[in-house]
Each structure stands twice: as structure tokens, then as C-alpha cells.
């Protein structure tokens, strides 16, 4: 039966709807090509392209946890910072090759994620919020106090990266960095997409939507939560390692609450449970941050806060579709 | 040794007053309010402004800080918080983070980012020492004052909750909002009053704590985790839970910082995670309550 249905000319509608979400859309190659062309076309903006790629990767990793598994995490910066510090320390003390450093950073964040995934299995949203927040704070505290290793509050300086693949130097124009980050974003993006569209991803969504029912139909909720959290931690670690490698610097702010809050905002702006949401949110957020901090360098968090409040009160759906304000604003 | 215990108790009582409003609103509305510290900060800054600009005596400032923060809380509850009660937790978290960011940036803009100093009246300065040797108990008069005020407030709160009509309405609404509404309790008014009162207490705590905790624009972010620990560890179903959690936190924090300064707040966070992994609903949960 199974082999027969594979050769059918037209799959059933259910099959189609399941398969369509994992297919390449025609606009996607164009989008990625445009992204890769940007550092060439606008060399002056290569740095911001790099930053956007890193933040987008970070937001996608949070999406795995928040959008697909439904865990409200306020401490995702823990893994970002772990990746950043590990990559920076590895480059400084062991070897400066970026790819190996990246792998080590990802591995460290994965281990950390696997350990902390034990803490998020039980309890209410508040409990998980506290535990994730606490995890990030513990790491912040550790990075601050272990100053012989991490440089404490001054940050970890003197990180010199070797050339990428032994050939491409990280130059001052930031092009290599941008392409490096974009490539990793591309790879991890499609891995993440494979994952969320796989049967495993479907069970994650089931857990998000109704944990009790998921348990009742035999999904091992605890281990699935662990898997999703660990994968997300690995991706966040990759983003952190990229950040440390492309800036040649790691400081305490990689662990800070602000970073966890920002990435949550990014994801919500772009839309949760949709991998491009992280990318879209990262673009909007970084451009907005650039714009606002150019006007008021010190107080731009006020406008960020105002934006958050308005976003929640008005509702994201209505905010990005202004034409619906007058159409059915009265009815709802 | 006893001095550290004493300071820890003072600190814990202060945390309790700051966080009890959060515990009640969270239990009542199931609303995750990360902006609670902003009300405390408002109370602190009201005191600072009144004392510095208008020379109001400290003891008069305290009730004014309470009233100011309570009014602010009432206005915000009615306008901003109420529409969000039935939204998902993610929205509530984002909203209250946004509010906190706004409060921090606005305070920074209007008041400057420096730490504010409160001139205590002379009878609250100074220190009394009892005993000798290893068991010496040094009590700062101001900390004694804090303990007295907070203990009085705790007893009053417990009496209000246990004995008065409003208290029973509040407990009914916490236990089951729909049935309470069905019995003719105006749940919205109960919520509004409780939120305002909780914010007022936070304001009072902020005013009292400005001397001990320090008061600067990032106060709401710096102490957010502490308030949340009190609530998450203490549970939201009674006020004794948060009280015990606050005392535990205060003593653990003060003694941890005194004995092992190298680790700092590390112990507190680890302890919190362990407790929450062990008892996800908090240490002091009443059995049979609403899950």
C-alpha cells in the first residue's frame, strides 16, 4: 500500500498540505540570494547584515522552544552567552580556527542545554520562566566572578580569529563575517525546518497545543521537551559563537536579561511558530534599533518598551495589517 | 552571626512588603507581571523628590509613597492591565517587560541615572548592640524600624484577609473567579482594589528600601528576579508562603554575600532552581486549592 501511494499522480489533499509546508517556495531562493548579494552590493552595511544574521539565528532557536514547543523562556541568552564565551576562549587559548571553534561552542551550548532541559519539564509557565531566567543569571554570575578565565566585567579581550577555511581573513569590511554568518544561518535554518516538519516536530506542536492530550496519545512529553530545548540551545550557542568570532570579543552583556527579552520581542514581531518569523523580526528589530538609537542613543529602550506595550495591546495581527483597523475594528 | 541573621530578616521583610502585592495579583489573576518593580521604584522616587525638593519629613513621605504608587497602580490596572487578563502568558510577559523598559528609560530621562540618596531622620540613624563576643547582635535602628513597620503590615494584612468581608471576597475570587462572580462579588472591583493596594505596598517598600537596596533607574530590572523568586517559591495561595520565602531569601542572600562574597548571588539562584525543580508549584502550597 505504502509504496503504491508514493507513485500516485495526485496525492490526497491531506498529504499535500502536510508536504507543502516543507517544500521550497519559489521566492525563497531569491530571498537567500539577495541576502548573500547584500554584502557585495552595500559593502558599507556588511556589519549590519552580519548582526541581523546572528540575531535571526538566535531568534529561530528561540522559536524552536517558544513557537514550536510552547515554553516561555526568559533566559535564552544563557546558551547564546555559553556559545560566545566558549568560542572566544577556544580561539584565545587553543586554536584560532573559526570552524572548529564554532563546533566547540555549539557542543558546549548543547551540553548546557541538555543539563538545563531537566529543569523545564514540570511546573507552570511562571515556574519555567523563573527557572530559565535563573539559569541565565547563574551563568552571568559565573562569567562575572570567574574573572581569571573570562575577564569579568571587562569582557574577554584579545581574541584573534584565524582565517576562515584557512583562506578568507576576517577583514575590516566585515564581508567575510557576513557571509560566514549567512551561510551558517542558511544551513541551520533548513535543518530546523527539516526538524519541525518531521514527525518529531509534529509531536512538539502537539505538546504545545495540548500537553495532556499529547501525553494521552503516548508522546513522551518529557524527553521531547528535552530534545527541543537542547536543539534550541545548540542553535543559540551557534549564534553566540558567531557573535564572538565575528566581533573578536565576548562580554557579560551576552548573558544579560535584556538580550533574552530582545530576542523574545524579535520573535514575536516576526511571528512565532514560523521559522521566517525570526528572520523577519531580526530585520525589523535591527533596523528599528539602528534608527532609534541614532535619534536617542540613551533612551531608545523607552521607545522599545512603548512598542512592546502597543504591540501587545493592539495585537500583532492587527498592527501589521493596518487596513483591518477600520474594517472590523468595531465588531471585535 | 546574629547581626547577619537580623539584617537578613530585615531584608526579607522588606522583600515581602515589596512582593506581596505581586503574589496576590498573580494568584488572583494568573497574570505574570514583571513590571511590579516599577511601582516600587515609583514609591522610592516619590519619597526622594518630596524630601529633596519640598523638605517633607521622611515619616510623612512613606504614606504619600503608598498613595502615589497605589494611584498609579489603579490607573494602569484599569487602562492597560485589564484587557490582558485573558491573554496568553507570553503576551503578559512581553507587555510587562515593555512597561518596565519604559519606566526605566523614563526615570533615567527625568531623574538621571545616578543613585538617589535618602537622608534619614536622626532618630533612625545609629545602632544598638546587645550581647558580646560571638553572639553580638548589632541592630541598626533603621533596620529595626523596617522590621517593625513590615511586621505590623503583615499582621494587618493577615487580619484583613482572614477577618474582614473584603478579605473573604478576595479569597473567594482567588479560589474560583467564576463562582465568586456568580455569588454576586464584583470581581473587577476586587481586582482593582487589590492591584492598587499591592502596588501601594510595593511603593511603600520602595520608599523604605531606598536606603537599604539603593534606588536608581534600573531598580525594576535589578530586583525583578527577587520579587519573582518570592512569589514562585512561596506560592500564591496564601501570604504566609511568600512571607516565609521572602525571609528565607533575605537571610540566604545576606549571609551568602557575607560569608562567600566570591559567589555572590549565585547561591540564591541555584537554590531557587533546585527548589523549583523539586516543588514546581512552590514550597508552601495549600492542598486542594485551584491548580
Please tally the helical runs of chain A, counting DSSP H or I stretches of 4 or more residues: 17
**Largest sheet entry of chain B:** 2 strands, antiparallel
The general outline of chain A is globular
Structural class of chain A: mainly alpha
Give an overview of the whole structure.
The complex is a heterodimer of chains A (332) and B (291). Chain A has helices at residues 2-6, 13-20, 27-41, 46-66, 77-93, 98-116, 125-145, 147-150, 175-197, 199-209, 211-216, 221-247, 257-270, 275-295, 300-314, 316-319, 324-327. By secondary structure, chain A is mainly α. Chain A has a domain at 26-256. The longest helix of chain A has 27 residues, at 221-247. In chain B, helix 1 (2-29) packs across helix 9 (219-234) and helix 1 (2-29) packs across helix 10. The chains are: A mainly alpha (332), B mainly alpha (291).
Provide keyphrases for this structure:
heterodimer, A: 332 residues, mainly alpha, 17 helices, disordered N terminus, B: 291 residues, two-stranded antiparallel sheet, 11 helices, 3% strand
Amino acid at each position: 500500500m505504502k509504496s503504491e501511494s508514493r507513485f500516485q499522480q495526485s496525492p490526497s489533499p491531506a498529504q499535500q498540505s502536510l508536504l507543502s509546508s516543507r517544500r521550497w517556495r519559489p521566492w525563497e531562493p531569491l530571498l537567500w540570494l539577495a541576502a548573500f548579494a547584500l554584502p557585495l552590493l552595500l559593502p558599507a552595511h556588511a556589519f549590519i547584515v552580519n548582526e541581523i544574521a546572528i540575531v535571526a539565528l538566535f531568534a529561530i532557536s528561540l522559536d524552536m522552544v517558544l513557537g514550536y514547543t510552547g515554553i516561555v523562556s526568559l533566559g535564552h541568552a544563557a546558551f547564546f552567552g555559553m556559545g560566545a564565551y566558549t568560542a572566544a576562549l577556544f580561539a584565545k587559548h587553543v586554536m584560532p580556527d573559526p570552524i572548529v571553534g564554532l563546533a566547540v561552542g555549539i557542543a558546549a551550548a548543547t551540553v548546557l542545554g541538555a543539563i538545563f532541559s531537566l529543569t523545564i519539564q514540570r511546573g507552570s509557565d511562571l515556574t519555567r520562566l523563573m527557572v530559565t531566567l535563573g539559569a541565565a543569571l547563574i551563568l552571568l554570575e559565573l562569567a562575572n566572578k570567574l574573572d581569571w578565565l573570562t575577564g569579568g566585567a571587562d569582557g574577554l579581550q584579545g581574541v584573534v580569529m584565524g582565517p576562515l577555511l584557512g583562506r578568507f581573513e576576517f577583514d575590516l569590511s566585515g564581508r567575510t563575517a557576513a557571509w560566514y554568518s549567512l551561510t551558517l544561518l542558511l544551513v541551520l535554518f533548513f535543518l530546523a525546518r527539516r526538524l519541525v516538519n518531521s514527525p518529531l516536530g509534529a509531536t512538539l506542536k502537539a505538546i504545545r497545543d495540548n500537553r495532556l492530550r499529547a501525553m494521552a496519545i503516548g508522546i513522551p512529553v518529557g524527553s521531547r521537551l528535552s530534545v527541543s530545548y537542547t536543539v534550541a540551545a545548540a542553535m543559540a550557542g551557534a549564534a553566540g559563537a558567531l557573535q564572538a568570532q565575528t566581533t573578536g570579543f565576548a562580554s557579560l552583556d551576552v548573558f544579560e536579561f535584556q538580550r533574552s527579552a530582545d530576542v523574545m520581542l524579535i520573535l514575536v514581531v516576526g511571528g512565532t511558530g514560523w521559522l521566517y518569523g525570526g528572520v523577519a523580526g531580526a530585520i525589523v528589530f535591527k533596523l528599528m534599533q539602528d534608527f532609534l538609537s541614532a535619534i536617542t542613543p540613551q533612551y531608545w529602550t523607552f521607545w522599545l518598551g512603548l512598542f512592546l506595550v502597543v504591540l501587545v495591546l493592539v495585537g500583532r495581527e492587527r498592527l501589521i495589517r493596518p487596513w483591518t483597523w477600520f474594517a472590523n475594528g468595531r465588531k471585535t | 552571626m546574629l547581626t547577619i541573621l537580623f539584617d537578613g530578616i530585615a531584608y526579607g521583610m522588606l522583600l515581602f512588603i515589596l512582593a506581596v502585592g505581586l503574589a496576590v495579583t498573580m494568584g488572583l489573576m494568573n497574570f505574570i507581571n514583571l513590571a511590579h518593580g516599577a511601582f516600587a521604584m515609583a514609591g522610592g522616587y516619590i519619597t526622594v523628590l518630596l524630601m529633596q525638593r519640598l523638605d517633607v519629613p521622611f515619616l510623612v513621605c512613606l504614606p504619600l509613597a503608598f498613595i502615589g504608587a497605589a494611584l498609579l497602580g489603579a490607573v494602569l490596572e484599569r487602562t492597560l492591565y485589564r484587557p490582558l487578563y485573558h491573554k496568553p502568558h507570553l503576551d503578559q510577559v512581553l507587555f510587562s517587560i515593555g512597561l518596565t523598559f519604559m519606566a526605566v528609560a523614563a526615570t533615567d530621562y527625568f531623574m538621571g541615572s545616578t543613585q538617589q540618596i535618602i537622608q534619614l531622620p536622626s532618630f533612625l540613624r545609629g545602632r544598638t548592640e546587645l550581647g558580646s563576643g560571638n553572639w553580638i547582635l548589632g541592630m541598626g535602628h533603621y533596620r529595626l524600624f523596617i522590621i517593625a513597620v513590615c511586621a505590623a503590615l503583615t499582621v494587618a494584612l493577615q487580619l484583613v484577609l482572614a477577618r474582614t468581608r473584603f478579605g473573604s471576597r478576595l479569597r473567594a475570587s482567588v479560589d474560583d473567579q467564576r463562582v465568586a462572580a456568580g455569588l454576586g462579588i464584583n470581581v473587577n472591583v476586587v481586582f482593582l482594589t487589590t492591584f492598587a493596594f499591592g502596588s501601594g505596598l510595593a511603593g511603600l517598600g520602595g520608599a523604605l528600601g531606598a536606603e537599604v537596596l539603593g534606588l536608581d533607574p534600573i531598580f525594576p530590572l535589578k530586583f525583578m528576579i527577587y520579587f519573582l523568586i518570592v512569589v514562585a517559591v512561596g506560592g500564591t495561595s496564601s501570604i504566609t508562603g511568600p512571607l516565609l520565602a521572602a525571609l528565607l531569601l533575605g537571610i540566604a542572600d545576606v549571609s551568602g554575600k557575607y560569608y562567600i562574597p566570591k559567589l555572590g548571588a549565585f547561591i540564591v539562584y541555584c537554590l531557587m532552581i533546585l527548589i523549583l525543580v523539586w516543588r514546581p508549584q512552590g514550597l508552601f502550597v495549600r492542598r486542594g486549592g485551584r491548580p
